[in-house]
Design a protein that fits this description.
- This protein has helices at residues 10-22, 61-71, 85-90, 93-114, 119-124, 157-176, 198-207, 227-240, 257-271, 301-307, 315-328, 330-338; strands spanning 2-5, 27-31, 51-55, 75-78, 126-132, 180-185, 187-189, 212-215, 221-226, 246-249, 254-256, 283-286.
- It is of the alpha/beta class.
- The protein has a domain at 2-190 and 225-252 and 293-312 and 340-348: NAD(P)-binding Rossmann-like Domain (Rossmann fold, 3-Layer(aba) Sandwich).
- A seven-stranded parallel β-sheet has the order 3-2-1-4-5-6-10, sandwiched between helices. It has a three-stranded mixed β-sheet with strand order 7-9-11.
- Helix 2 (61-71) runs parallel beside helix 4 and helix 4 packs parallel to helix 6.
- The longest helix is centred in the first third of the chain and has 22 residues, at 93-114.
- The chain binds nicotinamide-adenine-dinucleotide and 2'deoxy-thymidine-5'-diphospho-alpha-D-glucose.
Length: 352
Amino acid sequence: MILVTGGAGFIGSNFVLGWLATQTESVLNLDKLTYAGNLNNLASIQGDQRHIFVHADINDSAKLDQLFAEHQPRAVVHFAAESHVDRSIHGPSAFIETNVNGTFKLLEATRAYWQNLDEARKASFRFLHVSTDEVYGSLEKDDPPFSETTPYAPNSPYSASKAASDHLVRAYHHTYGLPTLTTNCSNNYGPYHFPEKLIPLVITNARAGKDLPIYGDGSQVRDWLYVADHCAAIRQVLEAGRPGETYNIGGWNEKTNLNVVHTICDLLDELQAKSSGSYRDQIKHVKDRPGHDKRYAIDARKIERELGWKPVETFETGLRKTVQWYLENDAWTSQVLSGEYKNWVALQYQQA
Ligand code: NAD
Ligand code: DAU
């Protein structure tokens, strides 16, 4: 069994679904169900005995100790976090509480469990920490992409909290020998993406006839990766990554925000045309994000070279799939927008 934290969020739920579709091993899914946790994401595995859902906080040390003792996982895959940069600007406290303190509590509980395992299980155990390219700061136009040796320079409370958690994970390997793995990934997109983030927000607003807000001039660059490719990379790192190492994950898909929004509008024009005009007419330039990082780009050669991972989707194929998913899953979006998704009770899953 593996323990997954944050498995009801965007990437975590895609990971749990992908795991159960490709592996036989069970998943213990621990999630606090903040605004970003949505059990509807896991509806398709309801009744699958290999999925056990636990409604809990990674800051709850007693619960973590109980779960480790009871389920004896052979690995932890740690997604749970506050993930939205804009929220971190308006209220950083939850980011420190979960991303820094929560990761520390999880590391402590893992260490206590791990150090009492027999030698064989101790050696094969893995703690995989899912992190972000934002810890490296911002690139200028002609800078080379972030590699695993790029110095950390986080600029937002979100990225600073993730950088702190990365350093804690590094220290637990260096000091205690905990077999950790850290992945630093670029911007994900795909199904079950909460519509506060650029791509799902634009798809949702466009269809609702609302403004499509572009911060500043829209020239900022992000490096986009389809979420299923990220999940496959994490499985590969868990399987074959070297303890103590970090792996950058990215799709070599640098796009300006304006370009991303234009492409979404063009796809919607093709797949669900308006009675008149283009979705591009709804674009509105708004006040820029404070401290807005200019450009992120990932050099993914290490994971390609050492672990043989490569993304399957290009930005064009992945974005088309994503827009199609939102067109076919109105119920998911409307439950998120109305807040109804919060009425789902965890009791519908086998619970620990
Ligand atoms: P998300 O916000 O969609 O999901 C986070 C999940 O964690 C939610 O289900 C939430 O309920 C849960 N959670 C939050 N606080 C918790 C706590 N204290 N205890 C237990 N569960 C808690 O985030 P996401 O976009 O799926 O990101 C997942 C991870 O991947 C994060 O660590 C993030 O930093 C990292 N990451 C995200 C991206 C991206 O583009 N979204 C890219 C690279 C890395
Ligand atoms: O790079 C990885 C990171 O990508 C992850 O670590 C974060 O968890 C994830 O949220 C994401 O961060 P970003 O800030 O890059 O994503 P977001 O979707 O919020 O914004 C993408 C770009 O679009 C960014 O330059 C800000 C801009 N933007 C965003 C929103 C929500 C807009 O122009 N308008 C908007 O309304």
